[in-house]
Amino acid sequence: MVEQKRLIDDRGLRVDGRKPNELRPIKLEVGVLGNADGSAYIEQGRTKILVAVYGPKEVHPRHLGLPDKAVLRCRYHMAPFSVERRKSPAPSRREIELSKVIREALEPAVFLEYYPRTSIDVFIEVLEANGGTRCAGITAASLALADAGIPMRDLVAACAAGKVDGVLVLDLNDDEDKYGEADLPLAMMVNLNVITLIQMDGMLTQEEFKTVLNMAMEGCKRIYEMQKQALKAKYLAIKEEVEV
Amino acid sequence: MTIYFEKRSLVVPGDLLAEGDYKVGENTHRVGNKFYATRIGLFDFKGKTLCVIALNSFYIPKVGDIVIGTILDVRVGGWIVDIKAPQLAMLRVVDALDRPFEPTKDDLTAIFDIGDMILAKVIAYDRTRSPLLTIKEPGLGKITHGRITSITPSKIPRLIGKKGSMISILKKETGCQITIGMNGLVLVRGKNPESEMIAVKAISKIERESHTTGLTDRVVEMIKKMKEEGGVSSG
Q1: Ranges for all domains in chain B classified under CATH 2.40.50.100
Q2: What phi-psi label fits residue A55: left (phi over 0), alpha (psi between -120 and 50 degrees) or beta?
Q3: How many angstroms separate the CA of residue B167 from the nearest CA in chain A?
Q4: For residue B112, how far is the Cα from the chain centroid?
Q5: Chain A residues touching residue B29 (CB < 8 angstroms)
Q6: In this complex, how many residue pairs, one in chain A and one in chain B, have their CB atoms less than 8 Å apart?
Q7: Chain B residues within 8 A of A109 when measuring between CB atoms
């Protein structure tokens, strides 16, 4: 056995120097792609993700269309260069599963019933992965959906929390996720106070679970505010430029 | 009875607009007695009706709309037309010809071929069927010349302006004929390519800056400047 890396140092700081209750630095940008109907880019620490949204449009192949609502199709994909060792570009078991959970996290937010017999396609492209890609993917995807002008009940913000070296921490990075004790990704529609995704691996006591859940919800709230700012920024920049 | 935003303030999906006895307008959504925005846009209310003027939207056909479309395919009984709606539209031969259609003699590609652009009217559309078009009305049919530009459909009222103020300025200043398709495609027909280009640039300026104030003045100023410079290069 290799000696375990210490994830919390003597000062109580984490591997990247953050305090337990601190998010990684987040950069959000909306409308970065010209050819997509809507798009968004997120940087959360070293995790970098690009999302493009198309639709609503005709469903191809046709038989996948539904008579009473639109189909939301998600493709979570990691670029071959997104991880240290080259990843095969073919969709892996993990990517197919994440596509499904991300779709289910976004579905409650979108008014799919307005557009029957159409599809809304979401492409989540992970450019660099350093933990928390499903959460960052959801955060960016909901921004891209809003940017595409698709009616939504609320924006979906996502954030993970977990347990590392016995300490409860917010927004785990890759090392903390791999070598930590527990990880709980959470996605929620903050204004409506609805959870749309909750997963967990590792072990937590009931008390710890409650604390970690609250921490993740707090993280989602902070990310939600940043999402709103990022969406408005696209239009406020034009406003400032022309209104002197 | 509280409204949380001022008129014309920028809202995003999920923003709580108001609480109490109001009515749902465009791009708003109600849960109990709380009203939320569903699109990014400018908040507005008329009386008790709350609405959000979307800054980005797509076209949902309405019966009676005049639209601009591209012929995508020629089938046995008609044409498949892209009108930038979620579904492809259909133009049947009976809605295009003013005489009976004879399958042995008539060649549909001679009337409209793939890639042709048409001005048409929506005659049927609902949740269960794709849009159906007609060109059997004066002014409708194949577009033979001019320039097409696009604008997000929710900004068409801004392009027209209050009582047509914006569009009449555009027409007067550029000398172009401007036909607005409700699906966001705009046909500009002028005497020369330069004046068409000026109109197209002015329309894209209106689209980009629709949420700002003092837009009409800036558009007039821009057109004047471009006319002085002797038009713009068609790039």
Answers
A1: 2-54
A2: left
A3: 21
A4: 23
A5: 111, 151, 153
A6: 93
A7: 13
For domain B66-142, the CATH class is mainly beta
Residue (of B158, B163, B177, B178) closest to B219 by Cα position: B158
Q: Report the 10 Å Cβ neighbour count for A147.
A: 26
Residue A242 at interface with chain B, using a CB cutoff of 8 Å: yes
Beta bridge partners of A148: none
For B147-228, which CATH class?
Answer: alpha beta
A-chain CB neighbours of B16 within 8 Å are 191
**pTM for the full model?**
0.93
Going residue by residue through chain A (244 aa), what tens digit of pLDDT does each one get?
A: 455 668 999 999 999 999 999 999 999 999 999 999 999 999 999 999 999 999 899 999 999 999 999 999 999 999 999 999 999 999 999 999 999 999 999 999 999 999 999 999 999 999 999 999 999 999 999 999 999 999 999 999 999 999 999 999 999 999 999 999 999 999 999 999 999 999 999 999 999 999 999 999 999 999 999 999 999 999 999 998 888 6
Topology at the third CATH level for domain A26-237: Ribosomal Protein S5; domain 2 (3.30.230)
**ipTM of the predicted structure?**
0.91
**Preceding peptide of B103 cis, ω within 30°:** no
